[in-house]
């Protein structure tokens, strides 16, 4: 009887382990990718790919819509132009990955590593709180609020406490995003659109904000020490005394503050 119960318990334990394991391993994913072409992309749609090492792979001929990639390593991988909508990407390693022109909608990417990643021209709506985007390329990215889905509430990008130090955000759109306590030190934000963004406690020390639009933003305790504010627009700022570091900022005399 005890032996029977032991075997039953062991079977249940093995079932539980298999139930939480990824659907595929790396060799299987590589086989999918090797057999794919533009007409017949690798079908990784809704696949459980959690905790896998998928670094350095080319996914440009793959369908990853709705896949579960939590904690997976996709560093140095090529995912450019893909639709990653509704995928699960929390704590993913995307460092040095190519995510140019990707669509990432309705996704949680909290705590992910996107340092040095190429996100130029990408579209993102979702949660990326505490993510590492240091030295990432977000030039011409469109991470502004989705104004077509107002019936679902304001759908926007959330990057609270994110690290964007040294990142390239030139000409990017972050309309109505949440960026409280985000680190933009040394970042390039030339001509970036930050209209209506909550930047409470954000750090722009040494950043280039020349030509950027910060109209209607929340700037409580925001730090601009050493930042380049040439022709930066601050429309709607009622009390600039709340802004920290203005005395050491550059080209303040050309900034538009009203």
- Give the DSSP E fraction (strand runs of 2 or more residues): 5-15%
Low-pLDDT parts are 1-19
Number of strands: 6
- What would you report as the Rg, rounded to the nearest angstrom? 22 Å
Helix percentage: 10-25%
**SS class:** little secondary structure
Largest sheet: number of strands, sense, barrel closure = 2 strands, parallel
- Ends distance: 82 Å
Which shape, going by the Cα principal axes? Answer: elongated
The strand line-up of the biggest sheet is 1-2
Q: Could you state the order of secondary-structure elements as H and E? A: HHEEEEEE
The average pLDDT value, as a whole number, equals 90
Tally of contiguous helical segments: 2
Q: What multimeric state do the chains show?
A: single chain
Short description:
By secondary structure, this protein is mostly loops. The protein has helices spanning 2-20, 26-34; strands at residues 42-43, 62-63, 103-108, 123-127, 233-234, 256-257.
Would you kindly provide a written description of the structure presented here, covering whatever features stand out?
The longest helix is centred in the first third of the chain and has 19 residues, at 2-20. This protein has a two-stranded parallel ribbon with strand order 1-2. It is built from two helices and six strands. The chain has 258 residues and is low in regular secondary structure. The N and C termini lie far apart (82 Å).
What is the strand and helix layout of this fold?
Layout: H1 2-20, H2 26-34, E1 42-43, E2 62-63, E3 103-108, E4 123-127, E5 233-234, E6 256-257
Parallel strand pairs: 1-2, 3-4, 5-6
